[in-house]
Design goal:
Blueprint (H helix, E strand, L loop, with lengths): L8 H15 L6 H8 L13 H24 L4 H18 L1 H7 L5 H4 L3 H15 L7 H21 L9 H17 L10
Helix pairs in contact: 1-3, 1-5, 3-4, 3-5, 3-7, 4-5, 4-8, 4-9, 8-9
Length: about 200
């Protein structure tokens, strides 16, 4: 059996995800992936259109993995317990799977992901957790952005060794999640623009 006989889009995406964790998402190339399979770059084009297509597939795979991990963590929890579990699962994925996590941060054409189960599940789980705080739109969107910015910023700094103070990083994380809980419980009401 020739090496290329086993190539499929899913197999290439999984291999690219593993490679991203090893060498960094930004270093993924079709040439590096072809080398891993012992085939020429051209052999990959019957399975993925181009590097952007591969990266999009990788982002969707990683996003699905991440929300599956978060879903398990938050199951049966509400309020601060759910927030803490959500945050912990997010951080663990980001630190354990750095290349995959980086893929979840790229901008993807919304028309490509609009109907995907992973996106639906992400919205369902994230918004469900936040509704326990009594939030509705537009506050839900604002709260999601606050959480994502906080979690991503913290994980990016932590993985880059950006926290140099002697305080334990886990304790700072726990306090940050406590602060987010307080912010969510005391969410400021948007002032009406009605005259």
């Amino acid at each position: 059996m020739s090496p290329r006989a086993g190539l499929t889009p899913d197999r290439l995406t999984e291999a690219a995800a593993d490679l991203a964790d090893e060498i960094g998402f930004e270093n993924i190339t079709l040439a590096a992936l072809a080398k891993r399979f012992g085939v020429k770059d051209a052999s990959l084009y019957s399975h993925v259109r181009n590097l952007q297509d591969l990266r999009t597939r990788l982002a969707l795979l990683a996003g699905g993995e991440m929300i599956d991990r978060i879903a398990v963590a938050v199951a049966g929890r509400a309020g601060k317990d759910a927030l803490t579990a959500f945050a912990g699962a997010y951080r663990a994925y980001a630190l354990e799977r750095p290349g995959r996590y980086a893929a979840t941060q790229i901008r993807i054409d919304q028309s490509l992901i609009a109907g995907t189960p992973a996106l639906h599940r992400t919205v369902e789980i994230t918004y469900g957790m936040l509704r326990a705080y009594g939030l509705a739109e537009p506050d839900l969107t604002d709260a999601v952005r606050l959480l994502r910015a906080t979690f991503h910023g913290y994980c990016a700094l932590e993985s880059a060794g950006g926290f140099g103070a002697p305080r334990d990083v886990q304790k700072s994380w726990d306090r940050a999640v406590d602060a987010l809980h307080v912010a969510l419980e005391n969410w400021p009401q948007e002032e009406s623009t009605d005259d």
